[in-house]
Amino acid sequence: MPAFSAHASNSSTFFLTGFPGLEQEYPWISIPFTCIYIMVLSGNCLVLHVIRTEPSLHEPMFYFLAMLALTDLCMGLSTVHTVLGILWGLSQGVSLDACIAQTYFIHGLSLTESGVLLAMAFDRFTAICNPLRYTSILTNAKIIKTGLGILGRSFMFIIAPIVRLKFFHYCHSHVLSHSFCLHQDLLRLACSDTSFNSFYALALVICTLLFDSMLILTSYILILHTVVSIASWEERLKSLQTCVSHICAVLVFYIPIIGLTMVHRFGKHLSPVVNVLMGNIYIIFPPLMNPVIYSVKTQQIRSRIQRWFSMKR
Q1: So where are the chain's domains?
Q2: How far apart are CA 121 and CA 117, in angstroms?
Q3: DSSP letters along 229-255, please?
Q4: 3 falls in which pLDDT band (50, 70, 90)?
Q5: 178-195: pLDDT as tens digits
Q6: Which residue from 20, 191, 267, 273 could staple onto 171, CB 3.0 to 4.6 Å apart?
Q7: In this structure, are residues 107 and 75 in contact, taking their beta carbons and an 8 Å threshold?
Q8: The domain at 21-306 falls in which architecture?
Q9: How far apart are CA 27 and CA 16, in angstroms?
């Protein structure tokens, strides 16, 4: 790794970081990572296939789940080539343009996932707090508009800081902190004035991730208020069980983000391996766990998958 520093400052190539100090173990480390990516890609494809082929799942809740699975699938596809490329010894360098493109998709997909989780929270709020108007509120047209709005918010608002990365002067060592490119990582290597990008990124996080999480929390406070008013314990549990999968998906998404932020902010003294590991958890864990959560916790999907595999025997 130190060998990169000698020529990196005048090069347009950046060097990704695998697991420092464990280079000799990459063939073994690549095995679980390869299995994880296979599970990410196959699991989300399976969820999409089940929703597409099962008419009983053509309703708002599962349309939003399909958006979540598609987002997770794209996240896996956007990072698999760099993560496994390092572990397989294929390539550790990436051009500035390719790095910026990966940064754009990673951050755009993260914002998309947050928006989809918020839409799913509204879906659960409507189903529990206003069940009689559920189908009239969440029509197909409104779901399509919601999806387009999420995509527009996620990928349009980040164009300005991402484009500016192309024109920065990178005079520091071009060694990145992760096995993929992140906006804050590129800023760390730039010698140009990055104040706009720093403030813009902070404002964007506050207006999207923080705002979304607060709205999700508010929706569940209102859901609990409605559920408590239900007389029967059986009906209360039945109502809350429909939210378990979504709550797990929210935790799986936000906990790694918080963990990575804490490591970047307060973990300067920690081993670089911890930084790389938290980055990989942030990228891989939600796409890996969401298909598992919804396949196990959602009865309609679980029974459909069981029937599908039984027919294959």
Answers
A1: 21-306
A2: 6
A3: T-S-HHHHHHHHHHHHHHHHHHHHHHH
A4: very low
A5: 899 999 889 989 988 999
A6: 191
A7: no
A8: Up-down Bundle (1.20)
A9: 17
